[in-house]
């Protein structure tokens, strides 16, 4: 199959491209062409900018794909542009949504796709716009004019990603553990979660491509290995041979102080991240999230070392200040309670 990936160089999409090649398919990557060095094998590229609709349509004129995987639509307008551009140019459109698009609190645990409502509040814009995208796509599915598949990853880590850690501090986590510095954890760290990794999630997209059983349906594609949030840091500490020191803040406190950094914790990750994969396993035989938390974090640590990732000094300072504030609070609370 000739499969177009809109994006193609992101955390999940680069794994999709590699897995398509491994399966004997022909991936075609559409993006600005600035990250070709990410691939060691030859790929077909179409260089352009999807935010420029007219030039995008011209680039795709005369093209034909067995499937189009859209990793860069974040709202209904983005998705509509993809649908209108490729309606007569492909046998299937696959959209990357997110489990963030669900309305909280959940109705089911583990979450089952067809028993949940979509987010209807714009308090967390990312989630709301993904939900609006899905509402638009459901209308297109009802029209029956083009086969559409929707895949909803949960929190996914992978090489190139900038989202690992409560402060999304990545390499800083290793640095702080090695230096004996405290790490900030939200809540009490015992919220259940299944941490997913990009190579596993990519298999869902590859398995859906050209698969008629997935037409008109939406699926989770997540790990089902049960952990709690503290485990994320505790396992990194185990892998590098140093026990981490954790300090815990309420999610509301963090979000109210710096919503641009912590809103995702308050609106999305204050609820258990457990998702049922029964539906995707039924329609994509052999799909399974195989990577354990330990294996996935080892992959991330190897990437940090290989690419010599720098410390984010601004976040490092913020975490220092949060830890100092926590220490003062604990001291004041102990004094108050002892009187």
TrEMBL record:
UniProt cross-references to SUPFAM superfamilies, sorted A to Z: NAD(P)-binding Rossmann-fold domains (SSF51735)
UniProt cross-references to InterPro entries, sorted A to Z: Epimerase_deHydtase (IPR001509), NAD(P)-bd_dom_sf (IPR036291)
Domain of life: Bacteria
Domain NAD-dependent epimerase/dehydratase: residue ranges: 3-211
Pfam families to which the protein is assigned, alphabetical: Epimerase
Family according to the record: Belongs to the NAD(P)-dependent epimerase/dehydratase family.
Descriptive protein name: NAD-dependent epimerase/dehydratase family protein
Organism: Paenibacillus gyeongsangnamensis
């Amino acid at each position: 199959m000739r499969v177009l990936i809109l994006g193609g160089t992101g955390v999940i999409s680069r794994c999709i491209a590699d897995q398509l090649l491994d399966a004997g398919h022909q991936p075609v990557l559409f993006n600005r062409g600035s990250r070709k060095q990410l691939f060691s094998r030859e790929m077909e590229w179409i260089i352009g900018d999807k935010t420029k609709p007219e030039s995008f349509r011209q680039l795709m004129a005369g093209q034909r794909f067995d499937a189009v995987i859209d990793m860069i639509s974040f709202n209904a307008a983005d998705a509509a542009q993809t649908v209108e551009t490729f309606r007569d140019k492909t046998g299937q459109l696959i959209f990357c949504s997110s489990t963030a698009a669900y309305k909280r609190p959940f109705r089911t645990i583990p979450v089952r796709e067809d028993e949940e409502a979509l987010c209807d509040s714009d308090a967390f814009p990312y989630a709301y716009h993904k939900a609006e995208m899905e509402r638009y796509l459901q209308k297109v599915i009802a029209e029956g004019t083009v086969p559409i598949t929707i895949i909803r990853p949960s929190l996914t880590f992978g090489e190139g990603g900038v989202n690992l850690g409560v402060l999304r501090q990545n390499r800083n986590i290793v640095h702080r553990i090695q230096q004996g510095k405290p790490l900030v954890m939200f809540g009490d760290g015992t919220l259940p979660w299944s941490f997913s990794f990009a190579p596993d999630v990519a298999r869902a997209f590859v398995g859906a491509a050209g698969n008629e059983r997935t037409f008109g349906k939406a699926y989770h594609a997540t790990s089902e290995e049960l952990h709690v949030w503290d485990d994320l840091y505790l396992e990194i500490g185990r892998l590098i041979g140093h026990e981490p020191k954790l300090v815990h803040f309420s999610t509301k406190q963090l979000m109210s102080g710096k919503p641009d950094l912590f809103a995702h914790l308050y609106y999305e990750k204050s609820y258990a991240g457990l998702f049922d994969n029964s539906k995707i396993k039924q329609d994509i035989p052999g799909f399974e999230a195989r990577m354990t938390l330990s294996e996935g974090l080892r992959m991330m640590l190897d990437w940090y070392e290989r690419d010599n990732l720098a410390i984010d000094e601004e976040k490092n300072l913020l975490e220092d200040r949060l830890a100092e504030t926590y220490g003062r609070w604990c001291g004041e609370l102990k004094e108050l309670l002892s009187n």
